[in-house]
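Marked as duplicate of an earlier ticket. Keeping the data here for the record.
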Amino acid sequence: RCMMQFSHPANASANANPDATGSLKGESTTTTNFIAEQISHHPPISAFHAEGADWEFWQEYAATTKFRGNMIKFIPEATCHVRLKTTGEHYSWGKPQTNVHNLILGKLWVDHEGDV
């Protein structure tokens, strides 16, 4: 399990001057919380959740592989989610399959197929 909390300037700019403690003078800060866990090792399944003041982002991820001679297919079983707290909007999307070609002979190349 991995748990982290980040505090960072809410409106940091490239021209901001930090004080001796490294914080920006007159700037408010925002906090981002993050937790991730490897739920299962066989089969490999992971999940994470991140949250800020106005948003949430989470994903569950598992994948299977198929070896086809000179190529390998990574087939994810994953859905990503974003929820905007201010509007209540919820977006979700899947991940495409990834194919790695010419593992043994030829020039290595990668393509993606499927719906997102």
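See parent ticket for discussion. The first strand starts at residue 2 and ends at 9.
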